[in-house]
């Protein structure tokens, strides 16, 4: 196992720079998720770590070694691809043992290590099958088995669950997390799905346009997003944003005149313009709150997703109340005063708030 | 009932093709089989002679000459084509500048009719005025005396045949190579495979089915090699460059021995079937091994 240190890493395709100086420190044995919308550079970053893309500038260390110039095979990493990239002409056992056969490992060693990986992943019964004869979930496991057999310093996952159906995805999510607990191998996991990142990772790195927007523990990103982008990206359904002005130390006024009580505004100047973010789950029904018209009701069972019209703005709200909502109905809502997020409308950066 | 109706409908749809195949291939083939047991020439009723035609053909040194020539040319042509086609497919897949243009250049010979190709080559390799001959002379290299030496004649026939048919082998292998996902090579690189190991352990096994198909087709095509030889050397000098199809043509239309020509035809069928059987079996096994359980 090893830590991974990325310092001012850059990637250019011709004159076009796509990764603009990324710094990430990944602790030994931790599980880090790289998330961001498509095109943010997360896969490129992972491929640079894997040695599949050249590093244009900056430094990449695995453990103490600088590996910038090392070919993939010498970086002591294993990668699980989105398409699994299993060798179609080889059996499950041969796929998992491919790296060992290249090293001309003994038959006994190969059997032992492939056997261990197969037992770990419950693949014993499938060892003689070809990839074609496997289901999506089984192929996914074989791809992980191939990585485990190599016993690498670092596991790299490139959107490994994207090709699975929703139910299997949740199941494999748990399995990968449990596997990481057991093996405690440093893991870098690329996904566009922030729920995957939140549920699995010790630490999340949010990327946009080739830059790190924020890195931190999942709940820290949720509780205190560093900017509007992270605030909107982390959390599902996404955060609501309004333009507002600070009226007093404990009151905000929205553009349509609605006054909203909040706490933690000691450091803010009166009349300062802010963007206020409210998570859908932090809105509640409140007599005397802002009157809102329900335009869409989406019950999921434990909770109900409401789309509301407040003034001219569309607002999403999640209610856990067991009450019948009807479209067209007018309800009054208010946010939890200590769960508001304030951002500078110019820079998009989080404004200092007392928690 | 509806299944039966569906079957009848399907049969009706394939019937025209089947009818044509029956008329132009199956019935003539059977007629030729019947003819191969007869003594037959112009102006004379066919007369049953048993296996005499076969024994005559098999004891004819010219037949054996033609068979050996055919075998040598076919083996050389098919295998050289396979190697060149594979090499070119890998070269193209590895990324070339101006690939669409080069692709057109490489495929061009396939668009040339065999007859035009032979005429072109006769000019190019003309022993006295041909451009290639002149170039070889200028370089101080020996020239091809294809009208004089049988080995030179067969060499130029093989060369011409490779040039004409390489695009076929190439395009099959190139398509197969393009269908191998790039991530397999990335996975192999991470697994520690050298470029050679990637070729031998990933590319080659995945191209085997395409290689078998290409070789099967080329064996069958190459076995009926005719126009290249007929137009280039005419089988000469002294019948030394004849191949089986030329031998058959001579028997039938020069010596008017339809019986022995028919026997030769069937020997040709049996020989190429024997060859094809090996490849068909391999292809069948390959597909069978890959079939989902």
UniProtKB/TrEMBL annotation, chain A:
Keywords: ATP-binding, Nucleotide-binding, Transport. One of its GO terms (molecular function) is ATP hydrolysis activity. It is a peripheral membrane protein. It holds the Pfam family ABC_tran. Residues 4-234 form the ABC transporter domain. GO terms for cellular component: ATP-binding cassette (ABC) transporter complex, substrate-binding subunit-containing. One of its GO terms (biological process) is carbohydrate transport. InterPro entries: AAA+_ATPase, ABC_transporter-like_ATP-bd, ABC_transporter-like_CS, ABC_transpr_MalK-like, ABC_transpr_MalK/UgpC-like, Mo/tungstate-bd_C_term_dom, NA-bd_OB-fold, OB_MalK-like. It is found in: Cell inner membrane. It comes from the Bacteria. PANTHER family: BLL2173 PROTEIN, MALTODEXTRIN IMPORT ATP-BINDING PROTEIN MSMX. Belongs to the ABC transporter superfamily. This is sn-glycerol-3-phosphate ABC transporter ATP-binding protein UgpC. It comes from Arsenicitalea aurantiaca.
């Amino acid at each position: 196992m090893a830590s991974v240190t990325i310092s001012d890493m850059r990637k250019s395709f011709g004159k076009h720079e796509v990764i603009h100086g990324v710094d990430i420190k990944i602790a030994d044995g931790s599980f880090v998720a790289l998330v961001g919308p498509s095109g943010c550079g997360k896969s490129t970053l992972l491929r640079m770590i894997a040695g599949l893309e050249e590093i244009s500038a900056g430094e990449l260390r695995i453990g103490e070694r600088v590996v910038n110039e090392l070919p993939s095979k010498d970086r002591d990493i294993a990668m699980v691809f989105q398409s699994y990239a299993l060798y179609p002409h080889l059996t499950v056992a041969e796929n998992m043992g491919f790296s060992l056969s290249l090293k001309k490992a003994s038959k006994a060693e190969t059997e032992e290590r492939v056997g261990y990986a197969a037992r770990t992943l419950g693949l014993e019964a499938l060892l003689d099958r070809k990839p074609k004869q496997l289901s999506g979930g089984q192929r996914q496991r074989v791809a992980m088995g191939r990585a485990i057999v190599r016993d690498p310093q670092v596991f790299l996952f490139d959107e490994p669950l994207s090709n699975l159906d929703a139910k299997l995805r949740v199941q494999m999510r748990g399995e990968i997390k449990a596997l990481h607990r057991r093996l405690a191998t440093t893991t870098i996991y690329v996904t566009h799905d922030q729920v995957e990142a939140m549920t699995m990772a010790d630490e999340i790195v949010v990327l946009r346009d080739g830059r790190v927007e924020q890195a931190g523990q999942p709940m820290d990103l949720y509780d205190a997003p560093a900017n509007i982008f992270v605030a909107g990206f982390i959390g599902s359904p996404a955060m609501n944003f309004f333009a507002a002005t600070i009226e007093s130390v404990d009151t905000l006024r929205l553009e349509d005149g609605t006054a909203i009580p909040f706490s933690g505004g000691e450091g803010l100047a009166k009349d300062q313009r802010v963007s206020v973010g409210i998570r859908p789950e932090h809105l509640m029904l409140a007599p005397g709150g802002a009157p809102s018209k329900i335009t869409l009701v989406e019950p999921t069972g434990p909770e109900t997703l409401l789309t509301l019209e407040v003034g001219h703005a569309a607002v999403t709200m999640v209610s856990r109340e067991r009450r019948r909502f009807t479209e067209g109905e007018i309800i009054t809502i208010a946010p939890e005063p200590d769960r508001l997020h304030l951002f500078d409308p110019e820079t998009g950066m989080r404004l200092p708030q007392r928690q | 009932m509806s299944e039966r109706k569906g079957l009848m409908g399907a049969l009706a749809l394939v019937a025209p093709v089947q009818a044509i195949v029956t008329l132009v291939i199956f019935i003539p083939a059977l007629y030729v089989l019947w003819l191969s047991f007869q003594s037959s020439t112009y102006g004379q009723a066919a007369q049953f002679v048993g296996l005499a035609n076969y024994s005559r053909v098999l004891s004819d040194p010219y037949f054996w000459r033609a068979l050996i020539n055919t075998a040598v040319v076919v083996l050389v042509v098919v295998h050289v084509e396979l190697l060149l086609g594979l090499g070119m497919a890998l070269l193209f897949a590895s990324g070339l500048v101006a690939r669409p243009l080069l692709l057109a250049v490489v495929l061009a010979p396939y668009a040339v009719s065999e007859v035009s190709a032979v005429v072109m080559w006769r000019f190019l390799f003309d022993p006295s005025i041909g451009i290639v001959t002149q170039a070889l002379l200028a370089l101080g290299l020996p020239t091809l005396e294809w009208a004089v030496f049988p080995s030179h004649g067969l060499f130029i026939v093989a060369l011409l045949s490779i040039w004409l048919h390489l695009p076929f082998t190439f395009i099959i292998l190139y398509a197969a190579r393009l269908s191998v996902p790039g991530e397999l090579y990335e996975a192999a690189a991470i697994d520690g495979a050298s470029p050679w190991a990637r070729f031998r352990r990933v590319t080659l096994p995945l191209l085997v089915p395409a290689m078998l198909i290409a070789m099967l087709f080329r064996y069958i095509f190459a076995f009926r090699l005719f126009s290249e030889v007929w137009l280039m050397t005419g089988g000469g000098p002294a019948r030394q460059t004849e191949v089986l199809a030329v031998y058959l043509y001579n028997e039938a239309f020069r010596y008017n021995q339809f019986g022995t020509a028919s026997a030769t035809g069937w020997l040709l069928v049996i020989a190429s079937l024997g060859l094809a059987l090996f490849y068909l079996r391999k292809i069948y096994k390959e597909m069978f091994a890959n079939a989902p359980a």
